[in-house]
Every structure is written in structure tokens, then in C-alpha cells.
User: Fold this.
Amino acid sequence: MSLVATRFAPSPTGPLHIGGIRTALFNWLFSKNNKGKFYLRIEDTDKERSKDKYKDQIIESLKWIGIDHDDKEFIQSENINNHKEIAEKLLKNGFAYKCYCSEDEIKEQKENAKKKGIPFVYNRKWRNPEGLEVPKDIKPVTRFKSKISGDNSIEDLVQGKINISNSTLEDFIIQRKDLTPTYQLSAVVDDHEMNITHVIRGDDHKINTFKQKQIYEALNWKLPYFAHIPLIHSESGSKLSKRDNASTIDDYIKMGIMSDALRNYLLRLGWSYKDKEIFTLNESIELFNLKGVGKSPSKLDITRILSLNEHYIKNIDEEKLLKLLKTYSSNFKKEIDDNKNKQIIKSIKFLKNKAKTLEDIYQNAQYILKDDIEISSEYLKLLDDSSKAILKDFTLDFEKIIQINKENLEIIIKKLIEKNKTNFKGVGQPLRIALTGSKFGPGIYDIILSLDKNEVLKRLKKIN
Assistant:
């Protein structure tokens, strides 16, 4: 068997979809597992909609999630002359023909099909043009001569054997009026020239595979193996689209999802290995195979993504977590000063407690990151006279402490609870508001121990 080669071939017409990332991941893992090659091909022949910013976003997204492609990315538009040559070859050998139907004619055919409630199939008017006069004012498209009778089948590596009646395939366009190739032609030519052995893509491409198979056969080229992965559905059960929330990789990065967590989630979205849930990168490569891919659509579950992210946050090295937090902060929030690094590392164990995202950690750390705490009018109302008295007494006792630790703090707070005939919340809530600006956040002992003694006193005295 020749060296395994797969490819991911997105169009740079919008941000990379989460389903595209999973397709890229499965291709990459399959190649890595088989010691093969994984290529990135940018299919930019749609010049009007293709943008460099989307191409850059695709490359950065793959890099972010840990997918590295072999060689330089392949730019499809740079191969357009070869596409044209193959179109001419198909015309010359009788496998394609020029179609001079006007847009109005095609529109009428589509409307008639709609009225009859049947799928539109081009009527093949120009397939045998005897007796037809070539119009002078219409530039033709090039159509492939699809088989009209009989059945066709492919051995799909995920779906099993798939059969189709040739009568359902129209004479599809392989070259537009301006001589640019359509997807059906360019994908085949590029896959052949790149020596792609396995085409792994969404199962919405099944009909394209039958069309492209005919082009391979007409050119007497070796057919690659095909594997069609079921699509990802939204939480409501419909096909996931770019209009859905959390449908692009950027959405997850903004949420504070870590790349390892999202990659692990996408790996398990439609693929399984025994009962294993958490996979290291090396385990993913070692264990991945197409036999583990299911045949049914997978439903996106944001709760599961957050749960996995929480697992990774709890188990990651603290220095690495700080680095990820700082990158996240610099991209979407306010950059974290380096002089706060030591303080955050010291506090990161409790800052990440119950945090599901990097955003949660960032919010939990606000009282450390900000030198001046702002207290909203809503929370200031909670600091009534009795609360201020508690804060004043705490400040007096806290100033006397030489060694600040949890045991000494517990003694002070227990004394205040007894003196004010209150409970832990009655003391802890005013302290938390005074020190962090919020009644929510980390535990009060963690907050006090994470701050410098002078900083604690400064914030407490600001209230009184």
C-alpha cells in the first residue's frame, strides 16, 4: 500500500466551522496513526467570496488546536491551469460537453421540477446537440456526461457499501462560463496530483463522491478510499451552521476553552474507543481508527465541553495555566502585568476551583489584578453600620497578627462571630465585598492569604 495521505480542504469564505475542525482532526489523526502525510489545501477558486483573512484564520485555528500540516499549504487557485487542461481532456475524449442553456432556461427547468415535487436534474439538452444552433450571445459552461442507466456503489470506510442509481445524477458542471473549475473537477484533479489516498469528509459529500468517482474513471485514475463522517447537529437537533452560537473555533477561544479540552471533545464527538473518555495527544494518535467512527449524527453538547475544560483546568501544570490565562487575557481582556505573575501562581489553586473556563479564572482573579477595587452601589448598601463595625474590629485584630495563616485568621473570625452574634456569612460577606468588590468569588481565607498584608489593610480602611 502506498504512503497514506489525507487532506483538509476548506474554502476561505468564512470563519472555520467547528465541524470543519473535527474533519481536519480525523484526517490528521488517521494520517499520524498510519505514519502518513496530512495536507492543508485552501480551496479558493470562488474568488468573490474567498478572503485572505479567512485563510489566515483557518491556518491559525488548526495551529491553535494542535493540528500541524505537512509541507506548505496548497493553494487551489494556483493550480487552475491544470484544472483547465483536464476539462479540455474530458471534452476531447467525449466525457464532457459544452452547454449553451441560458440562465432563464435553467431557471424554468428548476421551477418545473419544483412544481412536480421532484429534485432538479438538468435535461441534458446539449448532450447530443444535433440540430441545435449554437447561440452567439451565450458563453457555455462545461458539463460532465454522467452515466444515465445502471447503479453505482462505493465501499465507504465508515458507512459501509453505498449504492446509488445513476439516473439520479445530473450532467453536473465542471467548468463555469469564465473557464474556472467547479468543486467537482478541481477537487478530483488536486487530490490526484497530491497523491491523496483517503478522502475523509462530512457525509453531506456522499453525492459529490459519486460524481467525482465518474471523473476518476473517465481519466483512468486510481480512486482514493472514501470515508464519510456523520455531521454535527446543534443542541436542538438541527444541522449545525455558522449562524449557530459556538459554531466556530473563535467562539470557543473567546469563551476561554482550552485547545486540549476542545480537541478531546471533538475526538469523542462521533468516535469512541472502549469506555475511554480522556485522551492525551499521543493516545489520540495511537488509538484512532475509522472503525470507531459512528454512523449517526453527533449532537453538540456545550455542557460536556465545559465539563472537559474544567477537567483540564484542574489537571494542568500551574505555570502552563498561567501562560494560557495571560494569552487569553491579552487577546480578549486587559493584559495581565508580569508583576502579578507570582501572586497569581500562589493563588491559582483556589482561583481555578470550580472554574470551567479561562474566563472564570480571569474573573475570579480580578481582585488581584486590580490595584483599586470598585464597589458598586448595590454592594455598598450591604455594608451597613453593623458590617462596618465588624470590618473595623477585624482590621484592628488583623494589624496585630505577625504570622498570617489560616489558623490565626480563624481565631479572629470566630471571635467576631461570637461578639456580633452572627454566623460565618455575617463576617465573611462584608470582608469579601471590602477586599474584592463583590459578594461572590473565592473563599475568604484564600482571598486574605493571597493579598499582601498592607494591601488587605488598605482596602479595609478605605471602607471605614
About this structure: The CA atoms of residues 397 and 412 lie 7 Å apart.
